[in-house]
Design brief:
Order of helices and strands: EEEHEE
Shape: elongated
Radius of gyration: 12 Å
Structural class: alpha+beta
Length: about 70
């Protein structure tokens, strides 16, 4: 099974997908997920999301932060 960690950043209505990271080891995937999430917690990106999903499409984890004023 492959685990995929995907970061999504949205500023002023423009969304960017950061190049995903892939892992075959769950612990390594968890480490990458929480590292990105820790950076998202203190970023200046308006909406900053992180997902971990498997190669079969099942979502393992997802979380995110909203910073600043949203319309």
């Amino acid at each position: 099974m492959t685990y995929i960690v995907q970061e999504i950043q949205t500023n002023n209505g423009s969304t960017s997908l950061v190049t995903p990271q892939t892992f075959t080891d769950r612990n390594q995937a968890d480490s990458a997920y929480f590292t990105v999430l820790a950076a998202a917690a203190v970023s200046s990106v308006q909406e900053h999301a992180v997902l971990m999903y498997m190669s079969d499409g099942k979502v393992v984890r997802c979380d995110g932060y909203t910073h600043g004023t949203q319309e």
